[in-house]
Design brief:
5-stranded mixed sheet; 7 strands; two-stranded antiparallel ribbon; alpha/beta
Length: 176
């Protein structure tokens, strides 16, 4: 199962997860798992003003609008839902990266932030990449690689994720 991208007409910043988790696939909302730190980090960084309400029926429309009106889009490298990202093959990551580059060229955001260094290295054939601003663009957008907000990435906190996510948000003009 997969979910559609959450994408404004004119995105400024597109956050790209590795792939939907099972909870995300069930609710149709990116990063929906209650323990995921994505939305708390966005709030802590000042990217969005409040936590979105997510329940079995999805995300409240006013919360979807909050993200879209801020120019924030959300996508995934691989569309297939899994319990863990390590269930994905390198081929899936590579094919997803190629599709993502085409999608980004069509969306025309200022900045893309990929959430997950290992998946970025594998999918984009950049084995020595480091987190942060990348020396090349993706589909015409400035490219950042930032930490994955999953609870499996235990050494990261909401505060350190917020700090990492604020950098591409500033570059995109989402926050000052």
């Amino acid at each position: 199962r997969s979910i559609p991208d959450l994408m404004p007409t004119h995105p400024k910043l597109v956050f790209v997860g590795i792939n939907p988790g099972l909870w995300t696939a069930a609710t149709g909302v990116p990063f929906a798992y209650p323990g995921n730190r994505f939305y708390p980090a966005l709030v802590a960084a000042g990217i969005i003003e409040r936590m979105p309400r997510i329940d079995d029926d999805g995300m409240a429309e006013e919360d979807r609008r909050m993200l879209l009106d801020a120019g924030i889009g959300i996508s995934s490298i691989v569309r297939r839902a899994t319990a863990r990202a390590d269930e994905l093959s390198r081929t899936e990551l590579s094919e997803g990266a190629e599709r993502l580059a085409r999608d980004v060229a069509g969306w025309k955001p200022a900045v893309v932030a990929i959430l997950g260094l290992t998946a970025y290295r594998q999918g984009f054939a950049r084995p020595r990449a480091v987190a942060g601003r990348q020396p090349h663009d993706l589909g015409g957008a400035a490219l950042w690689v930032v930490p994955n907000p999953s609870g499996l990435n235990a050494h990261m906190t909401v505060a350190t994720l917020a700090e990492a996510y604020a950098e591409p948000a500033r570059a995109a003009g989402v926050i000052s």
